[in-house]
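Researcher: Let's run the pair from yesterday's discussion. Sequence first, then tokens, for each.
Model: Starting with the first of the pair.
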Amino acid sequence: DNEIDIKQNIAYLSGNTKLYDTLSTYELLKMCADIYNVPSDKAEARIKELSKVLNMDEFLYNKIANLSTGQTQRVNIARCLLHDPKYYILDEATTGLDIISSQIILDFIKQEKQKGKTILYSTHYMEEAENICDRVLMINKGVVVNSGTPEKIRKDTGTVNLREAFFAMI
């Protein structure tokens, strides 16, 4: 029972998660709601809310097979958020996405952070880390080369952004 409680409080998203492409976005989200035991009325409200916030209304009833990469990733994020978890593990959430899809996802992450959610966010995009992270852990070849607030890392390296800081350290 404890394992189920833990799983219901965590959302995991990877850049290469596969979805059932024969389902529509709506059908997939309904299925995920059932898996997480979200009551039907709550699930409907949550799907509507996520569809609006992640700009999915135009493709909510389209088959996942027919969606663009950015649309599919938004569905993937909605899938993770449906049960309103406390903790997020997001691995390369915006890799390969167009600028609009990336911004929708980053804005959503900021909103969740403001609600007090804990987010572990892995990215190669230093600008994203600088923009959304309170604390940063910089890794090069499996070794932590610096950690702290973006401000601390810039100060440590005498640079103006995290990209320059990273290159200064390696």
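Model: Moving on to the second of the pair.
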Amino acid sequence: PGNRNSIAIEMCEHRGNNQAQTIDRTARLTASLMYYHKIPLSHVVPHYHWPRAGYSPANKDCPHFLLENGRPGPTWEWFKNRVAQHYQRLSS
């Protein structure tokens, strides 16, 4: 259901990738999509949000570097705060 009911953004990891820049670019992109499509921050969710039928565990540990033990927690909230900061700049 996630691919049919949401906008998915992948953050690629590879050797030499600057993870901080990747996260910031993703936060900026997310804020832009929110602004132009009138999406509230409460609707910004990780892939974890959409359970996968027939898989165990049903919830994907993605994006793993923004989750704690495979679940949204403080790091995911930190990311959402970054998104909110970029959103505020757009809407000012």
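Researcher: Give me one sentence on the second I can quote.
Model: The radius of gyration is 14 Å.
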